[in-house]
UniProtKB/TrEMBL annotation:
Pfam families: Na_Ca_ex (PF01699). GO terms for cellular component: plasma membrane. This is Sodium-potassium/proton antiporter ChaA. GO terms for molecular function: potassium:proton antiporter activity; sodium:proton antiporter activity. It is found in: Membrane. InterPro entries: Alkaline_pH_Ca-Antiporter, NaCa_Exmemb. Residues 34-188, 221-362 form the Sodium/calcium exchanger membrane region domain. It is a multi-pass membrane protein. PANTHER family: SODIUM-POTASSIUM/PROTON ANTIPORTER CHAA (PTHR37958), SODIUM-POTASSIUM_PROTON ANTIPORTER CHAA (PTHR37958:SF1). Keywords: Membrane, Transmembrane, Transmembrane helix. The chain crosses the membrane at residues 12-28, 34-54, 66-90, 102-123, 135-155, 167-186, 218-236, 256-274, 286-310, 316-338, 345-363.
Length: 365
């Protein structure tokens, strides 16, 4: 019996997304008692695990790097919808919501997910091995997108403050789409081999050569994956008032709310990346991490640029000095990690310490 036939018998992975969606419909926009909040949190965690399961089934059917792309884009699209809905509702801190969410996603993916994935790979094989060509191309694209969309607004003079003028925002949106589209073309068509896992000897491992689930099973998993992700993001929003109350009660900055929600939303990708690293597929983990960072900018900025026509208030995209330092440090460390195509325990610890610095400074700016 193949592992995908065995997966079909895991009925809870089909039930969990449905229960999450039902809970989302019943709780959206309502004040919840403590018992219901705990139940929603449990359903959210179950939906995360179900999303990881279905993402693995889809990835096994379509092969790498398509599988990583499906999960990254699915999470990002739903996350963008959440940002737009919160901004349109006039939520507190709405003018900086897109910037804070995108930057938190960058730090979580490029330091948190990368760090934990490399740590898992290095502990398992002493040295985590991946394809430097593919990871380097992804890093270059992420760095360019982050600079164009998050750093430049702080220094442009078309508008007072860290904002783009309308023409500058339109250029950033078009540039983001072009860069993301060019990367997806490179990743999936022209140089797909650069994004496949490699062995310690440097041999490419093509997942298409291995056992694959049936097409019908993969299509069902794709639908359940989207249902699970909608449930995860929606229930994270349902939990956000409780998070906000806790943050305010603790006297923490409001930006911490965005960080916590981003951590919840990115849980499926984090778990999927760690499971890939445990199977000696560190390249798949990096595809997930850097692809998610790229999609977070490349899809969010164009959407927000269009939505800003009717959204209330200003759109603040420029990072402050502290966050720019963290971004520069992240890019520098990633370059030193990616270029050799091999990473040790030290590389993992460095990334995790940068991630820890981001979390600490979010709480104590």
């Amino acid at each position: 019996m193949s592992r995908f036939t065995r997966y079909a018998n895991d009925h809870w992975t089909a039930v969990a997304p449905v229960l999450a969606l039902v809970a989302l419909v019943l709780t959206w926009g309502r004040a919840l008692p403590v018992a219901v909040v705990v139940l929603v949190a449990a359903l959210l965690a179950t939906a995360v695990l179900a999303a990881v399961h279905h993402a693995e089934v889809v990835a096994a059917r379509v092969g790498e790097p398509f599988g990583s792309l499906v999960l990254a884009v699915a999470v990002t699209v739903i996350e963008v919808a959440l940002i737009v809905s919160l901004s349109a509702s006039g939520a507190k801190g709405g003018e900086t919501l897109a910037r804070d969410t995108v930057f938190a996603a960058l730090m979580i993916t490029c330091n948190g997910i990368v760090g934990f994935s490399l740590l898992t790979g290095a502990l398992r094989r002493r040295v985590a091995v991946f394809n430097a060509e593919g990871s380097g191309a992804a890093l270059g694209t992420v760095a360019t997108l982050a600079t164009l969309c998050l750093v430049l607004p702080t220094f442009t003079t078309g508008r007072a403050g860290p904002e783009f003028a309308p023409a500058q925002l339109a250029f950033a949106a078009v540039a983001s789409l072009v860069l993301y589209g060019a990367f997806v073309l490179t990743q999936t068509v022209r140089h797909r081999e650069y994004f496949l896992p490699v062995t310690a000897a440097g041999e490419v491992v093509d997942d298409e050569e291995h056992d694959r689930p049936a097409a019908r099973h993969a299509l069902v998993s794709l639908g359940l994956l989207f249902a699970a992700l909608v449930g995860v993001v929606g229930l994270a929003k349902v939990e956000s008032p409780v998070i906000e109350d806790g943050v305010e009660a603790a006297g923490l900055p409001h930006a911490v709310v965005g960080v916590v929600i981003a951590l919840l939303v990115l849980l499926p990708e984090t778990l999927a990346a760690l499971r890939a690293a445990r199977r000696d597929r560190v390249q798949t983990s990096l595809n997930l991490a850097l692809g998610s960072a790229m999609a977070s900018i490349g899809l969010t900025i164009p959407t927000i640029a269009v939505a800003s026509i009717w959204l209330p208030g200003a759109l603040v995209l420029g990072l402050g000095a502290t966050h720019m330092v963290l971004l520069a440090l992240t890019v520098a460390v990633l370059i030193l990690t990616v270029v050799p195509g091999r990473a040790t325990l030290l590389h993992a610890v460095v990334h995790l310490m940068v991630f820890a610095a981001f979390l600490f400074l979010a709480v104590s700016p």
